[in-house]
User: Fold these one by one.
Assistant:
Number 1:
Amino acid sequence: MRSADLIRFARDAAAGHPLRTVLLVLAMAIGVAAVVVLTALGDGARRYVLNEFSSIGSNLVIVLPGRSQTGGFNPGNAVTSTPRDLTIDDAQALLRASSVYRAAPLAVGTSEISYGGKLREVTVVGTTAEFVEVRRLSLAHGRFLVTGDWRRGASEAVIGAKIQDEMFGRQNALGQLVRVGDRRFRIVGVLAASGQGLGMNTDELVILPVPLAQAMFNSNTLFRILVEASSREAIDSAKAQVSEIIRLRHEGELDVTVITQDAVLATFDRLLGTMTLAVAGIAAISLAVAGILVMNVMLVSVTQRTAEIGLLKALGASAATIRNAFLAEAAMLSIAGALVGLLLGHAGAAIIRQLFPAFPAFPPAWAVIAGLATALTTGVLFGVQPARRAARLDPVQALARR
Amino acid sequence: MTSGLIELAGIERVFRLGDSEVHALRRLDLQIASGEYVSVMGPSGSGKSTLLNLLGLLDRPDAGTYRLAGRDVTTLSADEQARLRSERIGFVFQSFHLVPRLTAAENIALPMVLAGIAPSRRAERIASALRDYGLENRADHRPDQLSGGQRQRVAIARATIMQPAVILADEPTGNLDRATGEEVVRLLETLNERGVTLIVVTHDAGLGARAQRQLLMEDGLLQHDRRHGSETPGPCVAPT
Ligand SMILES: Nc1ncnc2c1ncn2[C@@H]1O[C@H](COP(=O)(O)OP(=O)(O)O)[C@@H](O)[C@H]1O
Ligand SMILES: [Mg+2]
């Protein structure tokens, strides 16, 4: 039998039993659509986190006080009970490193802001002019803190977009005097709205010069030092140089944790990638179920079409021809189901993107290919047994069945 | 009779049902020459269909040999037998056995499709078959849109489309009224006049008598083998 005829024969056979065909196509389609939608969700989550994390700056190296627990047992840690504070001098010292392009110290605390009788609790960030560059922030109005001596600062403040809205409404905040804690500051800039983001939301911040913030918190430690390496290639050497400088300054003990943005990104990438894979695996189970359905429906079909199989044998069809006809039908139904599932899955992912525009729910190519391949393989594999049964039927007995 | 197209020697066919054995064919010897018109008659259960199935290579004997056109076909593989069915044998059944989802033309084309004949060569033969059997304006009808006589004409067209040497018809008129049955038999006889060997199983003594050679079966045995009215005993009449 020619392949074109085989395909036409299988197609007609499938079309001859619309209910059975629709059922099988649907089962396959649901399996493939599940793979597509679930991996789109998983991979969307991965991309979302990576995007958010990338947007906080580039080539970032972050210094936090204290040894990270993940470093394992360190005899040095056992001796020192409390790590040394991270100071503005530490931050300034980092600028000597050849791979360090910029650095911004960060002191964080909470306080209250008041203006014109309104009072609000806010997160206060003490930093320097470099912060706006390192974090890639943009301003809606005015300017950021002035560059200059990190140990001295004017009584100037930059506020987030939401603070501007809540404290000043439509009124221009620039030049206004506000009280933060027990000091008065002049507002010199308003940050552009950043929308939702991971971690720190800049919309609700009040940014002050770092020495004034430390005075307000009555402490001279830093929460973080953000370091921008001079290039992507320099990230690793920046990390090494930063660690070495801090170690020397802290009497030979590395009591800080230095992480790179890349390493954090890679960890998230791995974690969420694994999650997507697991989700794809779960979705693939529905494909196996669809495969079993293919087998059962095809077995019913062989029984229903016993007389026809007997006739085909009487007309000279070889066992191979009959086997191929049934296999072709199973494969065709699987392909049709896979294609419908692909359409449904992509439509589902598109709807998710419509509903949550910030969420990049695109199914990864590997998942689409693996889903289609699994659908086809299970369809054909589970089609083998019914096809063999059809091919083995005794023609005389088959013909006698009506 | 000299070199037979069909030569059966010592054919046995036994069906086992539990402990009981049914001897559907017993030590059957039979020779049929090319171009003969043979009717097979006998009571129900006498082995007529079993004989036809063996002749059509749908079934294998438990003993004996079957030579078709001088070649021993008893021991052929299933695929080789399928090939012979495709090339040399045409079946006509009592219940027509048309594929319900296929049109008349597609049913007629089925043996050629299964044999892998190119569509261009098929079209021509289908057109002439439709013409020969008066089915031109029924080509695109499905079996359920055809009358009984038309269905059997489609089945005969299908049986002849590969130009087989032998046509095997098992009660071809069993599901038809008298006039239509007559018409179908005439079509089969026309094929025989053109040289096709025709073997018809029938209940109807009138139809059976039209054949030049009449076989009478009883309980798996060939009781009579009659030609042109002159009776000769069957080659293997076991005295009972
Ligand atoms: N597949 C089978 N299994 C068991 N017995 C069978 C089978 N086919 C035919 N027979 C028996 O063999 C005998 C001959 O049957 P068959 O050739 O169909 O008779 P006919 O066609 O002359 O009516 C009958 O007794 C029938 O019951
Ligand atoms: Mg019978």
Note: The first strand of chain A starts at residue 60 and ends at 65.
Number 2:
Amino acid sequence: MSENEFKSGFFIGGEACEGRVLVVDDEPDIRKIVKMTLQKAGYEVLEAENGEKAIEVINSGENRLLLDVVICDIRMPKINGAEAVAYFRSNYPRVPLIVLTGFPDTDMATSFLRQGVVDYLVKPVEGEKLRSAVARAIEQRELARL
Amino acid sequence: MALLALLGNSRMLKKAASGVLASLRGSTYRSVRLASSLTAALLDDLFEHPAGRSTALPHGDRLMEKSDHTKVAILGAGRGGLALLDLLHQIPSIEIVGIADRDPAAPGLPRARELRIPVTTDMPDLISNHGVSLIMDVTGDPEMEAYLHAHKPPTVDILSGSASRLLWQLVQHESKLEAELLQSEKLAGIGSFAAGVAHDINNPLQLILGLAENLAEERDLTAVHEQARDIIEAVKRTSAICRDLTHYSRRASPHENVLVSVNDKLDEALKIARYASSFHDIEMIKQYQPGAAVKGNPDELLHVLVNLITNAVHAMEHAGGTLTLETTVLDEQVGVRISDTGCGIAPDKIPEIFEPFFTTKAPGKGTGLGLYNVKTIVDKMQGKITVDSQIDKGTTFTLTFPNAEPAGQEGCLS
Ligand SMILES: Nc1ncnc2c1ncn2[C@@H]1O[C@H](COP(=O)(O)OP(=O)(O)O)[C@@H](O)[C@H]1O
Ligand SMILES: [Mg+2]
């Protein structure tokens, strides 16, 4: 069962966990609501308030291995979303990235998708849509592993 | 004499008129500039060098003593006279000695009384007044010119009806185009708000949607109450954005001249500027001296401050920095300082930044009209703007306005 550690569906503290998601947004409200939405579906949610913090989180301990999806805002202080996306793509190409932004911009969306971002969601996004985007991202990651 | 020579060859007037025509034809901005600078030159030559002294004073060194004022008498208080009153009384170097009309019901007379300008129906009396240096004839009476030449004191200059009218039209036209331009720059600027506004509206919307979805299933009554309150707050935040922006984008009400608190306007401008540019990584320092008040149009002053703050933030876009907003009150003057620690302006570019269309920003981001409009408004408020900049160190724009509430007055009030 050596493959199992890569699969989502591992156990944390005795509860079934669908996967570990990092949400990067400078607005505490957004982190709170995304967390609420995803926890309901059994995901474990980590938070970071900007790109710099996100990079710290992803580099700390087991997250390197166990992080399944990153959801990232674009308009943020310090290292902004676009820079964070580039960093994640080149350093953690295996972790799927979802962009969740308040400002729909087709040029930016195209460029992100070209960089390998798996989904580009515009706020406000329904819980169901967000959950299925995350599930899809994890599925793709699993497929890529096989 | 400077004035007569000017009117005699009338080259200046023709040039000014062709400027107006060109702008009428194309309505392009450059021609407004031409018309505007010619009008300014014309007014300069007419009024700032008193009749009898033809040597021009160097710019910036104009004496503004009472004895240097051009003392004007206006003949005719019909529409033309009324218009001239409105134009000339705004110019500090002009003193209107009196206005005369044979018709006591002429529309310019009540206006003159309002402005505390002496009024008479006795034309010959005003014409022979020795305190006058220039007579402007807008009676429309064909006999008047001959009469004037025969009866005026020898040192008095005459500006005929058609020249006075042209001057007035020029000024009117210029101010109309300027108002148009201000409005279009504002609307163009709103475009750059899109990202900020979308961000600030969609974030609370995300919260509202998420909470509402959760409420549909929530069983814990305390949580329900708390989340309902969160939704109400989020809705308030969202609607405040629309309120700020519609207020900002509306056309400035013309001719408004009221007492405005500069400190309040700076805070209002900050709110608006946040939509236009990202304030991330920018530290704010506010040093407001209480009671900084100026006379002017509140919407226009807001526009000035939004522009200066937005420029400052743009200048710090890449590396972040400190934005300092400062107001000072000295007896006669109110000062406003907006400083950034951004990219700075190259010394050779400084003379250009107030020119229309000068921009170093990408299309869609800069119009190059911001500082031009800033300057126009500040001039109108009889203020001054200066800039101090060092490459890679930062830039400070300083505005000084006449104090609308000098200490003496304030003392009376309190
Ligand atoms: N605070 C500032 N720091 C650096 N450069 C500035 C600043 N303010 C203005 N500028 C320069 O002056 C130019 C003209 O400014 P403005 O008239 O407001 O037009 P715009 O902002 O649309 O470019 C800017 O493009 C920029 O090069
Ligand atoms: Mg500008």
Note: DSSP finds 14 helices and twelve strands in chain B.
